[in-house]
Design brief:
Layout: E1 10-11, E2 13-14, E3 16-17, E4 43-47, E5 54-55, E6 62-63, E7 80-85, E8 90-94, H1 99-106
Parallel strand pairs: 3-6
Antiparallel strand pairs: 1-5, 2-4, 4-7, 7-8
Length: 117
């Protein structure tokens, strides 16, 4: 298991924020119907590296992009990370997960089939 030393008053559990995620950078939230990839194929919360931990009361999360979807999630010596899916299930995703699979899991409406390793 991974141990965290992020620091006092910090959390490593954040939501992925991006245009096509469940948390797009807009004021209005999304509707359930907008999760067309399915809740079991869409990430709601991820466990980031200690260097990406945030003060737990601060409205700050992980900005994700298709260019580097594993940024903030992997580092040398880290076997993987926890991810909570929108259906309520929690998975341990390996650090070796292909970037295109990771991006497919972040997007709510990309139409990709995400094979979770």
């Amino acid at each position: 298991p991974n141990s965290h030393v992020a620091g006092e008053h910090k959390t490593v559990y954040v939501v992925p924020v991006g245009k096509d995620t469940i948390f797009p950078p807009r004021k209005k939230g999304i509707q359930f119907q907008e999760v067309t990839d399915g809740t079991s194929n869409t990430i709601l919360i991820v466990g980031v590296t200690d260097s990406h931990a945030v003060i737990w009361t601060k409205p700050e999360d992980l900005k994700v992009s298709a260019k580097d979807p594993l940024a903030g999630l992997t580092e040398k010596g880290r076997r993987g990370f926890q991810a909570a899916l929108a259906d309520g299930s929690v998975r341990f995703l390996p650090a070796s997960i292909p970037p295109q699979t990771m991006w497919a899991l972040f997007t709510r409406n990309g139409g990709e089939v995400a094979e979770i390793p």
